[in-house]
Structure formats: structure tokens, C-alpha cells
Amino acid sequence: MSSNKKYWKSVEELNDNSSIVETLRNNEFAEPIPVEEFLGDKESLSASSTSRRDFLKYVGFSTAAASLVACEGPVIKSIPYVVQPEEIIPGVADYYATTIADGFDFANILIKTREGRPIKVENNTLDGVKLSANARVHASVLSLYDSTRLKQPKIAKKSASWSDVDAKVKASLNEARTAGSQVVLLTNTMASPSTDKLIAEFIAKNPSAKHVVYDAVSESNALDAFQMAYGERALANYDFAKANTIVSVGADFLGDWQGGGFDSGYAKGRVPRNGVMSKHIQIEANMSMSGANADKRIPLTITDQKHALVKIYNVITGASVGTQKVAREEEVMKAAQQLKAAGSKGVLVSGLDDVNAQLLVFAINNVLQSQAFNPSEARLTRKGDAKAVAKLVADMKAGSVHTLIMSGVNPVYTLAASKDFAEGLKKVKLSVAFSLKEDETAVLSSIAAPAPHYLESWGDVAISKGNLSITQPTIRPLFDTRQFQEALLLWSDNSTAYYDYLKAAVTSSVSGITWNKLVHDGFYTTPVTSVASGSADYAAAASTLAQAKKAGDFELVLYTKTGMGDGQQANNPWLQEFPDPITRVSWDNYVTISKADAAKLDLENFNVANGGLNGSYITIEVGGVKLEKVPVIIQPGQAVGTIGVALGYGRKESMKQEMQVGVNAYTLYANSNANQTAKITKESGDHEFACVQLQRTLMGRGDIIKETTLDVFEKEDAEVWNPSPMVSLDHNPVKANTVDLWTSFDRSVGHHFKLSIDLNSCTGCGACVIACHAENNVPVVGKSEIRRSRDMHWLRIDRYYSSEETFAKDDEKKENFDGLFGDKGSLGGFGQLEHPSDNPQVAFQPVMCQHCNHAPCETVCPVAATSHGRQGQNHMAYNRCVGTRYCANNCPYKVRRFNWFLYSKNSEFDYHMNDDLGRMVLNPDVVVRSRGVMEKCSMCIQMTQAVILKAKREGKAVDTNAFETACSAACTSGSMVFGDVNNKADEIAKLEEDPRMYHLLEHVGTKPNVFYHVKVRNT
């Protein structure tokens, strides 16, 4: 029965003579709404007999109704599909298999698209995948939406059409062909069989043409060595999962060494199983990702590394090549003996930029008969020839190059001899630069040809022998671009479209798989077991290497940072803000130097009042070339007598102002060799760093990073190496996990999500950090805000150094404090523990919201903006949060981020959220937060709910191990595992019962749903 009660909306309604009441009674809105703009002709609409219900039905889009009743804010027009594509269902993601091959990074990946927009990179998880996504590959989706991209062809810096470009290039090629003048195709390593075939056809049509391959970061010496040993220009492959003893001499194989991607195999051997765990010994100058993860790290200069390699060669092969004494020789010889004892289960790798050093690697692994050493499946992802590039520059300066066509290279920025190249470019009659941007080379070329992003392109890639991967477009080209291959076809008078050319070339070279299946899977593999042999003289290589001598004050090691790589994506704010895993510095490159050398030169790092980190400046001189005012980071573990500088910074052309940071270290990259002799001098002034972690050591806090040795782990009970924290109950010590301040709920019904993090297999690579950015619309705040400790990363990877030689000795020192004052008292002792060792052990620990079942943030929120969900996730109602920050103050893990500013559509933050193109990368499943609210990890609740709804729609239970978060899906080492502990078949349920499991700060009693596994070292 209906009610006739009358409700009053306000006291004003009781006044019958009120004009306001009368106005609102006849019109809900006090001011007219501009519906004409949206609906068209007002008169024809009023004359229509169409009802409101029919009108909304015909419009068929919910925002039409929203725009009619909105009384605040602008009207935003939403346009529905006229003809909806069959493959697109609004609100449902589509995934496409593709391959990135930008000359530096190669990986088999999946691209997540929403309504036709690529928004995220995922790993291709099919068996046979060669390389997975690193942090740069995850960030590459944002580079697609770079508003500084070259949008149309330019001739002499003026906008032109492709027909104009074709006419000029064809005329130039005809002129060169008639005169017999030199035509050069200068490209990066594309590793594309179809492109190689196409280039061969182009050269056949233009007999005076040649192809030169140039990689900004060269592996030329390693390629030369492999060619000597195996008769082919390629790089040896390695499977570290098959090695029990790994010795690396200057090879950061967990970083970018020889293309990277070795972390997955490496991690498999790093988790102790049945008493077996690989041992990793790292000999290096810079503190690298590999050195940070090693069981034993031996810091040596480049010269000493060369002699150490010869000593290892002597031990393994029985040779007796004379070498000089090296620092820490006893440790080097012990490593050599351990490698020899491992036999076929041992492997040696080297990153020394010396052909003789690389030859000794092959000799040692062949004598060991190393199972991890795999030359038959050689990598084809680095093919640059430094000698050929040097010859090209000489030819250009001599005026003997008529036409130069470049693709995927930027030598004016990346060549040490860039001035010579730029000078030679002026003497080339026609130069064409295919580039994503009008970069340093394109701006000096006759023609700047806009190239499509790899997500807009077709292609094939041979990552290694026996592999063929496919690149397919996931969006139509955003601008007037053309692929390099398409242009070659046109300029060869071949009217075939590159897609058809590619399809014909690929289908003729593979068997047992259809084109559609190949495109669907993204790759195809065939086993390769044989390898050719060459005629390398290993004994001569050892003798030559043994003659190495230090030539100057310092030995410079040029390297690539995990976030920036070779600098192709320097305009990508995700990567600029990505904290370096070792130094924790973002928005900069710098020179790393040892504490001892810094003291001699009066160089320092210090913190200022706002908590920011400052450092001194130096000038580096290599062979008469100076790199001025380079900021200094005093790096624990840096070998005395060495310095390190990262490549990829210091770019200016086609870069947003905020991204023009750092110095261009390529100017020191003489002869494309990463090892140089340098002089350094101190400069005046202090540099302001953006560093997200100022505490450097654990200071003996063994409840944060729990670790033990393999020997103790195997022989002792878990209570010895993973003790339960004790608290006082009624003045008696009891285990912390047995005491509660809250009443616990029954969480055995439904789903209960937890995340496991294994500290043994986490390499600190940071792929999870960028994946979290992409999935959850995490804003970029810029260097100034990072410096104020206002970073917005939902996930951070803490890096800790030991103060003594090991973390165990840190704990021992802390436990033996005697009294309060003095060196052995707690005050003086903790002061000493703040400083890292000269050669510290390193530990990485990913930390995000721990999703505590007894969360202290929830009890202090005055507006109940944060609360606990039935499925174990700590929720945030952003529109309820008023930014009191009580929760951040109460969080023992410090994982909540306060939105100090509106980072979207704010001219102060000119990043991806502040231009229309950049916003295309935003995930529509996650709200973009406004100013003044707390942000934090949501455990990717949108992803968990999507899995549940999919199972519900299909009418079945959720599959085992179906749940993932952005970080767990991005983790190639398998360190992060997410799942439902109530499903006992899920891997997470087994990991929770593992004796290595512990909770971060368990004595606090927060009952987190994130747990860690004790780190075990094979000492």
C-alpha cells in the first residue's frame, strides 16, 4: 500500500509566498542548462512527441542522461560506436601477442587494450618465450602516447608529404646508381629475417649500397670473439638454471648485459630446495644488480679483473700464463677452485669489453663442459659493428657517401665521435632519418621521416637461433607515419604491402604452424643443437690479456641503468621517476665513486634540512674529452680506483623540459668501449638529488630482513633461523602471533587474498614498480616533489647495505652493545651501524601496503575512508578521504602516499596525465585520484574482481592460480606470488606453510596479508 506522507526538503518550503520555492517547484535547476549544445535544435525538440524514456533509449549512452542533469562542471560529450567492432566489448580488455624489438630491448609480450587503446604490457607466459618484459618494456606503452613524437614527414625542417619524400629519395638513389656513388643503410639491430631479405633485395637493385648495423650500446667485442670461436656474428646464450656455481667477471647479467633476460633462469637456482642452491660469485668494479644479488662479491679494477680472468683460465685449463698479483687474490683463487669443482654445473661469464676476455670465457666454459653455456641457441639481438660504423664516419667526412638512410639510430647523440658524424652528415647529398621523434640526428638530416611505434607496426624478430617472433600492431597509427620496411619496398619499386611481404616471407620459412596461429601465439620455436666451429687462439688471447696495465688515475666503467637503458625512452616520465635499484636516485645520472677515493678528493654526499640528498660535482676527462659538472654519488662497494657513469641521459632534442636531465656520458664512449681511462677533478657547487631512500643500512634490525646461511638453514630447525618474535603477556614472553588486541573474524569462507615475496629470488629489477604504475594510474610527481619525499609509488623496493661485512655481523654487533655511551654503547654503536661497509652485502625488499587484517590505519581514520574487506584487502574510499594523514602516521610500514597536488590536468606537472594524448594510457578500471587524498596499493582489486566475475559469468569455480596482481604478473623471477589461501590448491597456500615464511614487523601484531620468505645465502 502506497504512502501519502508529505516530506519537506527545507524550512523554506513552509513559506507559501517564497519565490525560491515557486521557481524550484517549476524547474529543478535555478539556472538554465545548455542542452541546445547537446541536443541540437531546441524548437524541433519541443515540437516532438518523443517521450523522455524513448529519448534516452534512442541516445543509448549513459553519459547523455548525466549531462542533462549535471548542474555543475562542463558538459562532456561522449560518442558511442556507430558500428561497434566485433572484437571490442566495452569494459572488457583484449590482449594481443607481440614482440618489442627496439634495438636494445627484445621481449615476447602481451598488450592489454581497452576500447582499442593499448594501456599495459603483460608477459607472454606460453612455453618457449625467450625474453620477458623488464621495467623499460613495461613503460614502453606510455612512449606510444608521447606528444613530442614526429607526426609527419619533414624536408629541410619543413612539413612535407610522403609523396614529396618518395620523389626526393628515388631521385637521389637513381643519381647514386648512375654515378656508382655510395648508398648506406644505417640501422640498429632489428634481428628481422624479413627485413634482412628486403635489405638484400634493395642492395641488389642498388649495387653501390651497403648495410651498416649500429647499436648505441655496443657488444662488438663479444660479437667478434664469438665469430672467431664459432664462425658466426652472434652472442652466446646462457641458462643459469642449470648452474650450481656462477662466476661473473664484470658481467651484470641481471641487468642489461648482452640483452638481459637471464633473471628467470637465475632465480630458479637461488631458492634452496632439498639442500641445493646455486652459488654466485661476482667480480666487478661498479656495484651492479648482479653484484647486489651475489653470495660473494669481489670488487676489483678493470685491470685486475682481466688478470683475475687469466688466473681463473689457468686454474680451469691447467695453463700457466703469467699474470700480475691482484687485490683480493686469495678470494679470486678460491672462486676459481670452486668453479673447477663444479665442473659441468659451473659457468663463467664476463662483461669485460675486450675480445680476448670474451675468448677466455668460451675456453673456460668449454673445458668445464658447462651445461649452462649454450652457444647453439646464440642470441641475435646485438649485431652492431663498431669498426664498420667508424669506417662510415670516415667515409662521410671524406664526402664519399651520396645517400644515407637511417632507421632506429641516433648517432649524433650516441656516438662519442658525434661531432665527426654531424660534420660528415653535411657532406652527404641526401640523408633520411626514420625516427619516432625529431631527435638529435633527425633534426640535422635532409629528411626526418616519422616512424611508427612498435605497437603500431608489423614485423618479425629472431631473438635467438631457433626462434621467430612476430610483432603485430595493437592500434592504428596515431600519426602520419611509415615503417622503414614499407619505404624500402616503395623505393625498390615493389608495390607489395609490407604485411603481405612479411606474411609470405614468414610462412615460407616455418613449418607446422599457420600464420594465424603464429600471430596469435606471438612466436615460434624450433630446437637447435649444433653449432659451427671457428679457429680462435685461446692461448694467445690469455697471453695478450695478461699484459693489461692500468694507464691512468681512474678506470671508468660506462653502464646502462635499469630504468633508462640506452636512452631511447628518455622522454618517458615513468622511467625518469623510477628509482635506481642500487642508489635509489631518480631523475639523474651521476658518477659513482668509492668512499676512499671520495675522501682523497674531498667529495661528499650530505643531507639538507628538508631531507634531500646533495652531492659534489666533478669533471671527467677521457682522451682529451671532458664531461663537466657531473654530480657524485659515493657508492658502497665501488672498487677503489674506479668510477662509473650511466649512459642514456643528457638528451635535449624533442624532449619535454622536465625530462632534460643528467649528462651525456656517450661523449666518453670512445671506440664504443665501456672501459676507459679517466682523470677527474672536483668542481664547485652542490648538486640536488632526488633520492627516495636515505637510510642505507638495516642497523642490525633483523626483523625486517631475515636471512641465514645455507649451512644453518639445512642443519638447524626453523626456530633458529626464523625465530618467532616474542611479546609480553601478563609479564610472560609469548609468541607475537598468538596475541590479539582485536577480535578476529572467520575468513575461511569465500576468497582470502595474500601475496608472497621470496627475498631469495627477488633481484630488485623494478619491473613490478612500472607495472603497478601502468595498472593503477599512479601519477608522476617530478624531481622537485621526489626530493621532498613525496613520491607516489604504490610499491617501493627498499635496498639495504650491511654495515659490517655481512648482515649477520651487523646483528652480532648490535646484540653486543655494552652500555649507552662510547663506541661499544648503543648510541655510538648505532652511529657506526648507519654507515655501509666498503664492500657490503645487499638485500632488496619490495614493500607495498601489507593489507593488515588488524590494520592500525583503519582504527584511526575519522571518516572511515579506509576499511577492511571480506577478502583480505585493505580498501580506500577516495571520495570519503579528507586527507588527515592519521593513517600514514599510524602505518608501521610507511606505504601510504598523500596526494599533495592534483597531478592530473595540472600545468605544474607536465607528464602523461597532463596532455590529451598521454591520458590515453590511463586504465579506465581505476579512478584517477584528486588532490588531498591518501593513495596506496589496493592489491589490484580490479583484477581480482574481474577474475571472480569472469568465473561467475561462465558458471564455474575460479581456476587454480588464476588470481594475479600487476606486480606478481610482472615478476619474471617468480619472487612475487599472489593468490587465494582458501583454495588449498593455489600455490600461495603452500607458500604460507613454508618454514621460511615470516611477516614484516610481526611483533607489531598487524597480521599482514603480505608475507616474505627468509633470505638464504650460499656462503
Automatic annotation (TrEMBL):
Under PANTHER family, the record lists: GLUTAMATE SYNTHASE [NADPH] SMALL CHAIN (PTHR42783), GLUTAMATE SYNTHASE [NADPH] SMALL CHAIN-RELATED (PTHR42783:SF3)
Pfam families listed in its UniProt record: Fer4_11
Domain named 4Fe-4S ferredoxin-type is located at: 753-783, 840-871, 872-901
Identification of the protein by name: 4Fe-4S dicluster domain-containing protein
